[in-house]
Design brief:
- Chain B: One of its GO terms (cellular component) is cytoplasm.
- Chain B: Its cofactor is pyridoxal 5'-phosphate.
- The structure holds 2 protein chains of 2 kinds.
- By secondary structure, chain A is α/β, with parallel strands linked by helices.
- Chain A has 2 domains: 178 residues, Aspartate Aminotransferase, domain 1; 243 residues, 3-Layer(aba) Sandwich (Aspartate Aminotransferase, domain 2), CATH 3.40.640.10.
- Chain A is 43% helix and 12% strand.
- In chain A, strands 2-8-7-6-5-3-4 form a 7-stranded mixed β-sheet, sandwiched between helices.
- In chain A, strand 5, helix 8 and strand 6 form a beta-alpha-beta unit.
- In chain B, helix 10 links the parallel strand 4 and strand 5.
- In chain B, strands 1-7-6-5-4-2-3 form a 7-stranded mixed β-sheet, with helices on both faces.
- By secondary structure, chain B is α/β, with parallel strands linked by helices.
- Classes of the chains: A alpha/beta, B alpha/beta.
- The interface between A and B is large, with 86 and 102 residues.
Chain lengths: 451, 374
């Protein structure tokens, strides 16, 4: 019966992040893997939801007030003019907003450029709509955008895939897993590419209110010529600590917003009604709320950096936003030996494909082994970084780009710090168990990959 | 008073392009469960139709009869946009397969409803609310902090309760963790089933008239749709026509029983015939049974319970209709593991997870004593 699955479904595998979460639960480990807080949401917001249920706001619903508030906030916070009547679609979380956006603009075979590393879900949505993801690697350790590499991915891909017509679309995500916030110059490079190639851009701004060190979140729509070709997606989940409520939105020009709305109606009909009501309260929060949110997460970030660097992890890039730390394994980690032994030897043959896939899978396994060790020995769970890196399914011309399993991709582990102080302290305690007498992180040698 | 409960602000007037829904809430006259008007909800559509202005000036009956989207002449999705005058005008593009899905008939009917102050019998939600014990359960879940991501395919207790209910209703024992996927409403269960199990070019048979999301999601999946019209006055299945339509090239048959919008229930004979032909041709069945608890004269028969059918059937259902909580968006798909896999994959990219507190409440609701259902 496996043949009954669609081709697309067959290419998908279970989420490694969720699987590790389940393992963490079974071992009663401290979950620093999934990006949701373990402290309660603001009481006012919860009360609003309770009140909505009691007031019988329990049937199919579209709460236009959400659009009014989003438009107001866009204007006050970003200087963006948004028409609440035409430019906004309320969806079941940013996930659905993004999925609906993909169905709205992607035809089978259309290419979508993404930056690597990135969150696992985008590729799935793109493929579900029949699109082809094209990855452009950001340069470690600061995850900078290489303009030339970026522009050349447009050119090369156009030739490889185009039939009669194509839509090029650039997907932007803020911050997951690296915590990077794109600089104005980088945004300008991206904007110029979109304008000159008549492309659309889709942004994921769920962490828009979680930025640090006075770095301001800049929305791509503000750049010249970009508002009409940018789809902003976001949600209440991260800002208000209610990831389980599934209230998100897409903001775009009227035609695209209308298409997204129509598709959303066919995918889910509407977002949960009482939580739409509660979102009114959430989105009416004053500047104090956002200030204290930032301050709070910033201190958690700093604590976590200190904790991890104290036991030997390398954090060369301090996150500027979101609540993830993308930490490198210590230099002394035996993982680097594994990396050397997996170097490709003959990229031009078909074997190259296997030597590409297998080492990457092995590396993923090895990283998973390390994370399993973290769970079992330290009682802490995180996410192997390898799952956030991708390689292109369309073959590249150069040898260098074929060896997409770069060494650095094997060295990262993502920690979430959106947890209470008690949790972070407990994690510190657990991790200290792994430190040897010299104060260095003691990780086991890889046991399953003797290559 | 009632107008203040309406979620729509009347100025500026809403445009036709929005598929909006309004709440028609008239707490001063809750409809008892036995009120005959209930039958009309079965015959109305499930789609979003903005409710009439909540005043009973002109009680005209309005049911949305068509499930086919009507193209709106002013909203051609591929027309050039006319944004701010300072911007250069480029024709913006929308995916081809969805060009024809513009403003639905429901949106247009809703505008007429508001304009004429009509009672809304077009949209498939009740204007009486859900039972208190279920609402209390959701409230308690929110207070208990169950507000973060649920397990993607469902909160364990919710899956367990769905399995228990399914066993009571059909006699079938299913594994809650391997054979049940919780989704944002039955609508998402339908979308996830189509996108997870249908390849572009696959042939799918549907019975017309049908709920409007079927066509849209089949289109998104790139299916070849074969539509067979149910025959009035009883809306019987034309079995001969079905026999000649189905073949080894057919991937799936989509049935909806009890049926929206006709209220028809597929008879045992019809289901047996469909089943045997599906087995013979190795065809899947997607069975939308969202109204199964709102059966009045005949007993509802679940396709999955027929001999040889469970292994090839995806059964779709939800909390909303049975418990008058349509806005909570708790639905599910029940299928054998090899089919559940595809549904779950699509689901994880459509919405990732379903609203957590409502799932806790759903578990309570589904364990309601049988007396609730009578």
């Amino acid at each position: 019966m496996e043949k009954k699955l669609s081709r697309v479904a067959n290419t998908f595998t279970p989420s490694p992040i969720q699987e590790l979460s389940h393992l963490a639960q079974r071992c009663n480990a401290i979950n620093l893997a999934e990006g949701f807080p373990d402290f309660p949401a603001a009481p006012a917001i919860k009360s609003a939801a309770v009140s909505a249920i009691n007031s019988d706001f329990n049937q199919y619903r579209h709460v236009q007030g959400i659009c009014e508030l989003l438009a107001r906030n866009a204007k006050e916070m970003y200087g963006l003019e948004v028409d609440p009547d035409t430019d906004i679609a309320i969806c079941c979380g940013q996930t659905e907003a993004f999925a609906a956006a993909m169905f709205a603009i992607i035809d089978p075979g259309d290419e979508v450029v993404l930056f690597d590393p990135c969150y696992e879900t985008y590729e799935g949505c793109i493929r579900l709509a029949g699109g082809i993801p094209v990855y452009v690697a950001l340069e470690p350790p600061h995850w900078t955008l290489d303009a030339e590499k970026f522009m050349s991915s447009f050119t090369g891909r156009t030739k490889a895939v185009i039939l009669n017509r194509f839509i090029h679309c650039v997907v932007f995500f803020w911050n997951n897993p690296t915590g990077k916030v794109f600089t104005w110059n980088e945004l300008e490079i991206i904007a110029e590419a979109c304008r000159s190639r008549d492309c659309l851009a889709v942004t994921d701004e769920v962490y828009e209110h979680i930025t640090y060190d006075n770095v301001k979140h800049v929305t791509l729509s503000l750049l010249p010529g970009m508002q009409q070709r940018t789809i902003i997606t976001s949600s209440v989940s991260k800002t208000f600590g209610v990831t389980g409520w599934r209230i998100g939105w897409a903001i775009a020009n009227p035609i695209v917003a209308s298409a997204i709305r129509n598709i959303h109606v066919k995918l889910t009909d509407s977002a949960p009604a009482p939580f739409q009501e509660a979102a009114l309260t959430a989105l009416s929060s004053g500047p104090d709320y956002f200030e204290s949110l930032r301050r709070d997460y910033e201190s958690k970030r700093d604590y976590s950096i200190q904790l991890l660097t104290g036991i030997g992890f390398q954090i060369r890039f301090k996150p500027q936003g979101s609540f993830f730390l993308f930490a490198e394994l210590p230099e002394s980690s035996p993982l680097s030996d594994v990396g050397a032994s997996l170097a490709l030897t003959d990229p031009k043959t078909k074997v190259a494909f296997l030597t590409l896939i297998i080492p990457c899978l092995l590396v993923l396994m090895v990283q998973v082994e390390y994370v399993k060790h973290l769970i079992e020995q330290a009682g802490v769970v995180a996410v192997p970084g390898r799952g956030f890196f991708h390689f292109n399914s369309v073959s590249s011309e150069s040898e260098e780009s074929l060896s997409a399993c770069h060494d650095y991709q094997k060295r990262y582990i993502r920690f979430a710090f959106c947890k209470s102080s008690a949790t972070l302290e407990a994690a510190a305690q657990g991790l200290s168990e792994l430190v040897d007498t010299k104060g260095c992180l003691n990780l086991p040698p890889p046991c399953k990959t003797d290559t | 008073m009632l107008e203040s409960q309406c979620t729509w602000t009347h100025s500026p007037p809403p445009t036709m392009s929005r598929p909006l829904s309004f709440l028609l809430n008239n707490p001063s006259s809750p409809f008892p469960r036995t009120f005959p008007l209930r039958q009309l909800f079965i015959n109305s559509t499930r789609s979003l139709t903005p409710a009439a202005a909540p005043i009973f000036r002109r009680p005209s009956l309005m049911a949305a009869l068509s499930t086919v989207s009507v193209p709106h002449p002013d909203k051609d999705a591929t027309a050039a946009v006319t944004p701010n005058s300072s911007q250069t005008q480029h024709p913006l593009q929308v995916a081809k397969r969805l060009e024809k899905f513009k403003t639905t008939i429901f949106t247009q009917m809703s505008m007429l409803a508001i304009k004429h102050g009509a009672i809304n019998l077009g949209q498939g939600f009740p204007n009486f609310d859900g039972p208190d014990f279920v609402k209390e359960a959701a409230i308690q879940a929110i207070k208990d902090g169950k507000n973060q991501y649920a397990r993607g395919f469902g909160v364990p207790d919710c899956n367990a309760a769905i399995a228990e209910r399914f066993k009571k209703d059909t006699g079938l024992v299913v594994d809650p963790d391997k054979e049940i996927t919780v989704t944002s409403g039955c609508t998402e269960a339908i979308a996830a089933t189509m996108l997870g199990l249908i390849n572009p070019g696959d042939e799918v048979i549907v019975f017309a008239p049908f709920y409007d999301s079927y066509e849209a999601t089949l289109s998104m999946a790139g299916a070849q749709v074969k539509s067979i019209t149910l025959r009035p006055p009883d809306f019987a299945v034309p079995l001969d026509e079905f026999k000649s339509a189905i073949s080894k090239n057919t991937r799936a048959v989509l049935i909806n029983t009890p049926h929206n919008p006709t209220g028809k229930m597929f008879t045992r004979e019809e289901l047996d015939t469909i089943a045997s032909l599906c087995i013979e041709n190795d065809v899947l069945v997607f069975s939308d049974e969202v109204y199964d608890k709102l059966a009045f004269e005949a007993d509802h028969i679940s396709m999955a319970s027929l001999p040889g059918m469970y292994e090839r059937t995806v059964t779709l259902n939800s909390l909303g209709k049975t418990f008058s909580l349509t806005g909570w968006k708790i639905g599910w798909a029940i299928a054998p593991p090899h089919l559940t896999w595809g549904v779950r994959q699509a689901h994880s990219y459509l919405t990732f997870a379903t609203s957590t507190p409502m799932q806790s409440a759903a578990a309570v609701a589904l364990r309601a004593p049988d007396s609730y259902y009578e």
